[in-house]
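Incident review: delayed structure delivery

Summary: a single-chain prediction request sat in the queue longer than the usual turnaround. Root cause was a stuck worker, restarted by the on-call engineer. No data loss occurred. The affected request and its eventual output are reproduced below so the record is complete for anyone auditing the incident later.

Affected input:
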Amino acid sequence: MTGDILNRNLPMKDFFNQEHRVTGLIHYYMQSTETTEANDEISSIPKRYQALSARATYSYKDAYLIEGNVGYTGSEKPLNRANNSVCSLQ
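Output delivered after worker restart:
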């Protein structure tokens, strides 16, 4: 079994007018796994997992705060059904 992992962060920080502070972060993760000893076509399909998340914050005079987060996670793998060989995004 072989696999690759990609993990990246992009941070951001700014302070202006002695009153406003803004920070942010974007994070991306991807993992791919392939089986080299597959017994059939379905088990030879690579399995992939990926995630993307972001965070942003704002503060006024470090007293009033606003924060927001978003995220997406997904995987690509064969369905676990005996009569169906279609890949599905889950």
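Verification: The chain has no helices and five strands.
Action items: add queue-age alerting; document worker restart procedure.
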